[in-house]
Amino acid sequence: MSRWLTVIPLLVLAGLAVLFIGWSLQRDPEYRPDAIVGQTVPETVLPILQGDVAGPQNVDLKTAGVGRPMLVNLFASWCAPCRIEHPQLMALKARGIAVVGVAYKDEPVATRAFLDELGDPFTMVLVDQEGRAGLDLGVSGVPETFAVDAMGRIVAKASGPLLTQADVDRLVAALDAPARPLPTARTPEELAIQREAAAR
């Protein structure tokens, strides 16, 4: 009887391993969760990188675009793919597109050295040493880039580095897309007619 008690945990672990392997084989490796697209940028207050220190000024990521469309790019000096995508970000700056950088889990001194070496494509850099913005945005790793419209709504997302012009164009096109029209105002008489029709 005691021998069975020692074998049962091993059987449970083996069963869980089989389930996990079966799930991972059926999972699409290219799946990129875009659950936050269509939602407003979470309110996350972060210090601005000034020189090679964080702060003292803070900015809410939600209002960093100052009422204009922007791209929000999470990057880090320790991130190899961030170096690869950097020329695309510099090209966006040359086109006049606002890109707000969020230095994700990075030291301000290292972030400044990274930008001094490769060039600074950002209209501002926010320091996210604790990874709060990453949690709020549901980031799975850096780099990730979010297209945010003038109302602060996320309209597109790119997981991983921006490698091609097509990657960049998709985000820029999302910024340029017309906003959904607001519902038209109705007179009290029109609302009464609509209520009567719905009650029938």
Structure explained in plain terms:
It is extended and about 80 Å long. With 200 residues, it is an alpha/beta fold. The strands form two sheets. It has a five-stranded mixed sheet with strand order 5-4-3-6-7. It has six helices and seven strands.
How many strand units?
7
Strand ordering within the main sheet: 5-4-3-6-7
CA-CA gap between termini: 70 Å
Q: What structural class should be given to the helix and strand makeup?
A: alpha/beta
Provide a compact summary of the structure.
This protein is 40% helix and 21% strand. The chain is an alpha/beta fold and 200 residues long. It is extended, with a radius of gyration of 23 Å.
